[in-house]
Amino acid sequence: MTELDDNSITTTNSDVSNAVVSPKGTSSSTIIGALTAGGRSMVYQITSFYLRTPVKLFKPARFEYHHYLKTILNGEKTDKPQYPKQRYKSLVQNSSIGILTQALNKYGWKVIPDRVLPPLLINSATGVILYSTYLNTLSYLSSVEPSKDVEQISHNTINIFASGWLAGAAQALVSTPFDAIYTRSTTAEIFESVHKYKNLWNFGLEKLKEIGLVGCYSGFTLALIKESLSYAIYFTTFEVMKGNICQRFVVFLENYRGFKSKLNNLISFKDDTCIDQNTLVSDREKKWISRAFIFAGGVTAAFFLQVIQYPLTKIQKIHFSRLEAFDIYNKSLLKNPNSFENYFQKSTNSLIRGNKNTKLPHLPPFRIYLNSYIDTLLHIHFIHKNTNDLVRWLYKGFTRKTLAVIPGTTAGLLLLDYMKTSLENEQSNS
């Protein structure tokens, strides 16, 4: 009977390269991360075309190019078709392919490098950072005892959790400014950007100057908690499913077959000292069992990712809506510095009598963004008092979004594991 350590995750030779840190391994991890992010994005876009989920709900694709194209093509048009033929036509026109076709017909091929590529490049970059950081961190944290047997290598669960946590933190650090620009851009600003800016890069830089560096990272605490915790559980769930639980299932299957064989020998009065080869799990069976657990691990990990990210994303939207008010104030203040001061001064003169020189206190940006978190918490408390079921409100629409996200997220993990295994087999054979 085989014994497994509860404090570690036992994997096959597919984790060999994670045990050694080298420049070649680092570059390989970056390549794997890039391919994984690209494959994940492709499957995700195909899934979104069929499920027709609203654009802003998509994940892991953080920034949707067809949301931008749809805005500049239709503006704030929200009329819903009433007849079946109109609904079918609207479905085709509002799909990713339909929107891209309309944009090409209206703006020409220049729309691809100017309006389509920037979101795709940002999505790929965040995916590369996520997977590459995870692979390199896991390789650094994992320790392997010198042995000739490389068939089994143990990765501690804590190391996997820490690697996923750091990978999520790295992605949050890079993506937070883009999230701020993306979520705090109004429909009117996006619609005007077509005539005002040559491409999305110029629009993003101008929006970055308007918000400021401190403003871009104003929601970093929420993003850090969401990304770090969710991806720590995401990668840990996947590795546990395909490693420890898979191995335990193989051991259970062999023990069950062995017990059944001994029972048959006892009933038929046969010698039970010889080992029946039928009780052992063949390599082909292990291969199929491993594939099944890898797939199940990907689906389970994607589900738990949404369990954590979905409610936190709703809270983020509330927080960003608070920050938009500060953006509007700062933008108006830059255009006419005296307007807001005079307005508030006149409104407070009725309360402050006898002192016309009284001025409102000017809070520094850091203090303002700190107060925005308090305002967000108060708003959530207000929702809880009105709904009497905050959890239900946070997870409203969870099923539909999860069904849209799981295929692409699972495909990313499957491609990641496949690329890791192929690369490690080449390194072990060389």
TrEMBL record:
Annotated transmembrane regions: 288-308
Pfam families in the cross-refs: Mito_carr
UniProt KW Transmembrane keyword: yes
Region ranges (Disordered): 1-27
Chief location: mitochondrion
Keyword field: Membrane, Mitochondrion, Repeat, Transmembrane, Transmembrane helix, Transport
Top-rank taxon: Eukaryota
Stated family: Belongs to the mitochondrial carrier (TC 2.A.29) family.
Name assigned to this protein: Mitochondrial carrier protein
Organism: Vanderwaltozyma polyspora (strain ATCC 22028 / DSM 70294 / BCRC 21397 / CBS 2163 / NBRC 10782 / NRRL Y-8283 / UCD 57-17)
Species classification: Eukaryota, Fungi, Dikarya, Ascomycota, Saccharomycotina
